[in-house]
Amino acid sequence: MLEVKPIRNRAPQALAPTTEDTVLLLAHMGRWRWETGKKEVLFSPGVFEIFELDQERFFPTLQSLRGLISSRDMSRLFVTINRLMQDAREGVVDFTLKHPGRQNVEFFVRCYVCVEVDQDGEIGALYGLLQDITRDKRNQAALQHALEENEAANRAKSRFLATMSHELRTPLNAIIGFSEMMHAELLGPLGNKRYVDYAGSINESGRYLLDLINDILDMSKIEAGKYELVHEPVNVSKAIRLACHMVENTVREKGLNLAFKNQNETAVIEADRRAFMQIMLNLLSNAVKFTDTGGSVEIGIHDATDNRIAISVADSGIGIPADKLHRIGQPFEQVSSAMARGHNGTGLGLAITKKLVEMHEGELKINSLFGHGTTVTVLLPAMINQKQYDLFNGGKRTPSHFDGEL
Length: 406
Known about the structure:
With 406 residues, this protein is of the alpha+beta class. It contains eleven helices and twelve strands.
């Protein structure tokens, strides 16, 4: 505790300077003392300096200070100090202090209170420190305001995207459905082969636009923290085989070699099934998209350190330049090279994948050699057994769920 000694033969509001005052001043602090039964409150020179008070004109007393503190803060200050005196313990209380000679100037003050008890157990004085926390309070208020504005912007963005989703998806689904019927000539021949080709192009463009809208909505939900995961046991091998089946037509059309090398057929992870499928489809689609005819795509599963499952997707495609590698995985980021410009995409697929992996407490790594191919590795925590599942979910589930089809 600080030892406070009032100077004799000095103005009654002043405390004697000490070596501690210089250090306290750096922290915007000064000392104070009030002896019970007296009207005067003693301030160290640091208090006058910190709160810009004129030592020759302002005399701190209980009455003068009461006039500078709001009634709301005064009531709280009185209750707190009264409780500290009853318990004979230290405490802290914050309040606002108006400047006595300047209008519209107000300080946020943090008051540290100590109780001085004499040999008879009677309270002889209160003393402690006054700290100017105005800058901290204003920074906190500015930060809170910025957070509220950011939340409001996110809400507005979510509302806009939800509206856009509904307004665009409804006509798009009609365009995709009707163009597919026309391309297949379900109601009869169109009369000209070009019309069939046009219908196929309309269908392809509509599907591309729908995928783009879905990616933007997913990214928006993830960034806003509204993408909810429903965890359950997922058999990694079966999920990957299903993802491979879904890109099989594109692989065949491009003349690629798709291989699946599985070193852990029974690998099970605790994951959101839909999100994990999206991770695998995004990785496979990227690999297929950026691999030229005759190239290869290889998926592998193996055990990794720290009880994790490693899933790798390697391609012999265009690769990523070394100076661009650190930017891959950021929203709307694409490789800006002559080799990549011919491929459609928004740069959201890998960004969504990275976010989804991190939401599963996993890790995504990218190794690439420009002109020779890319390997993306996803590391996810493995589920060991049924007991672990019960610990995660707080309930029992039959082991057959580990072997269910996706």
